[in-house]
Fold this sequence. Notes:
Blueprint: E1 3-12, E2 17-25, E3 30-35, H1 41-51, H2 63-72, H3 80-101, E4 117-122, H4 128-140, E5 145-148, H5 160-178, E6 183-187, H6 195-205, E7 212-214, H7 222-229, E8 236-238, H8 244-253, E9 259-260, H9 270-281, E10 286-287, H10 295-306, E11 314-315, E12 334-335, E13 338-339
Helix pairs in contact: 1-3, 2-3, 4-5, 5-6, 6-7, 8-9, 9-10
Amino acid sequence: MKITEVKSFLVNNGARNWIFVKVSTDTGLEGIGEAFNTLKDKATEQAVHYLAHWLIGQDPLRIEHLWQSMYRFSRFPLGTIEMSALSSLEHALWDIAGKYFGTPIYNLLGGLCRDKIRVYTHAGGRTPEELAQSAISTVKKGYTALKFAPFPKNYSLLRENELIDETAARVGAVREAVGENVDICLDVHGIIFNPAFAVRVSQALEEYKPFFLEEPLLYDNMEAWSKLAAKVNIPIATGERLFTRYGFRKILENQIVDIIQPDPCVCGGILETKKIAAMAETYYINLAPHNPLGPVATSVCAHIDASTPNFLIQEHIPDDKPPRSEVVTEPLKVEKGYLKLPTKPGLGLELNEEAFTKYPYKPVYREELYNEDGSVALT
């Protein structure tokens, strides 16, 4: 069996573009994957086809060998764009392998560690009252955990004390609304530059018993994270902007987080996420994969989660409405806060290419945000 062709698809979902890939073989078997949408989506698509040079004519079952070929033969360190492309192609190779052996991917990764996958989804709202109502609505859908941004929308214009008070009001409103038995996850998005302020914010939120605090600091200063971890009594999570086991090594060795959140669509793919999780397991650190992407990414995460002993919880966006429900066949479903496992060979779903024409690519740019003095704010 040899790889004959690699195709890519950019599909707009309203807010962003999904980047899907399809790898074909001379036997008729095909595999699909999804790349992280860095917003430089055309560049990521080009990277997919550049890396495909090391796939065409090769045996798709040699997954580790082909990963090393794409990674090592590029020679210079791969960045977010290239790693997103590589990850999507790796997904497709696993999808082919599962179909070739007639089994779901998780059975090729050691088999099931669990029968269902606990998930959380997102709540939102500009005011504490709106946020609380969104949280209640989420819980009514059966979720036992939810995540939201604790900072208000205008955080860049607020002084520190005012920002802490408003943040505490938002988190407190949600805790009061959903009670003690629903887990609250908080995502700061790495928009705090000052470790001392990150400590003050975190300590102000401890009374509301967050399940975890995600990216309470900008992500690339491990020493600053050590200062934070020593003074905060909330489980700390990070990892969505890191990739490969090498990128996670220092944060694991220093044991400055409780939960790692690699994104399988950028960190290197399915097997690389498993390797990162295994490294974390030796430090008693849990895995909660990052996934704000499309339904293919959800299935990718599901196979990792199902076969990983130190898995904790999975970020999830429901696939029950268009365009999410249209771009793949049989998207995975959630019941009572748990994602049902895929059961078909490979990833367990297929791309519905006919639906793609309804959602053509559109360029997307992140919101520009400035501080009160006009300087550029972190986003």
